[in-house]
Amino acid sequence: MKRKTIDDFKRPLFFEDFAELKPFHTKWVTVSPETVMQFAFLTGDENKLHVSDEFAKTTILGKRVAHGRLVVDLLFGILHEMRFWNGSLEALLGVRERFFAPVCLGGMIRYWISIKAIRVSAKYSHAGVVTFRYFVEKNNEGTVSNTNVSSGEFEVLVRRRQCSAEEPRQS
C-alpha cells in the first residue's frame, strides 16, 4: 500500500484514511502572551509562572512560559483549522504527554504527527480507534537547531467513511 501525504487527502479524514497517512508536521505557530492569558483565564490556572513577568523573573527560567497543557492543546486547534477530522471525529479517548523544555511567550512551535495504531472499534461498528504519536518542537531563534518540547500520544474515535454525518449511526 502506497502511503499518502496529508495534502493528498480530501478533508475531513475518516478512519480508513489513517492507514495510508504518512507522518507529517504542522505549520509553525506563535505562542502569544494573549493566548497564554486566555488559557489561564479559561482553565483557572493563573500560576504566576505563566501570568506575572515580575514573578517569572525570579524563577530558574527568568521569564514567563506557556502552560504545558496549552502547548499540547494547541495541536487540536491546528488540526481543526486544517479540517483534519471536522465531521468525522466522534470522541477524544485519551492523551498522554511528557514535557522536556519550556516554551517562552512569543516562542514558535510546530507538531510532528504519526500514526501508532488503528483498529476497528469493538463497541461502535460505525467507527474506529486511531492512536497518534506526536512531538512538539520549538524554534530556537538565532540557531539552526530546534528543541524537542514535549511528546506523547492521543487516541480518538473516528467515523468510518460510509457513516457520514447525515446517516444514522450503526452500532
From TrEMBL:
**The organism of origin for this protein:** Candidatus Sungbacteria bacterium RIFCSPLOWO2_01_FULL_47_10
Domain annotation MaoC-like: ranges = 23-121
The protein's matches in InterPro entries, at most eight in alphabetical order, are given as: HotDog_dom_sf, MaoC-like_dom, MCH/BMMD
Indicate what this protein is called per its UniProt record: MaoC-like domain-containing protein
Tell me the domain of life. Bacteria
| Residue ranges the record marks as coiled coil | none
**Residue stretches spanning the membrane:** none
